[in-house]
Design a protein that fits this description.
Blueprint lengths: L1 H75 L10 H9 L9 H7 L5 H14 L4
Length: about 130
Amino acid sequence: METNETEMAQRLDAATSLLERTLTWLEERGAAASTLTGDVERISATIEQSRREIELTEKLIEAERELTELRASAATIVNPLRRTVPASTSEMLAKHGIGDGPVDVRALDAALAGLSLEQRIAVKTQLLRAGAIA
């Protein structure tokens, strides 16, 4: 019986040692897993940051494109604030029967026949700025 008890005590000691080693191994593995989880979280954060940077870059490109288009359209507008014809031009056109509103090009050419080339160009330029002729 003493042999059985000794054998049993040795088996229990061996089992206890094995359990302690297993517990230590599990704790080490858990620590490694938490380190790995932290690494995965950092990698995920880096990927999300990269995606956000790509989105912001795309938005910036789109905004720059729209700004370029707006600048180009603003450059094509000739003196947008002026919508009236100078009084001298209006008087000269009124003498030839051309009143307010859109101007017929043939009637305008007939009205401007007595002017020099430079004066005709100046009058037509004024009318273009005012939007009276297209």
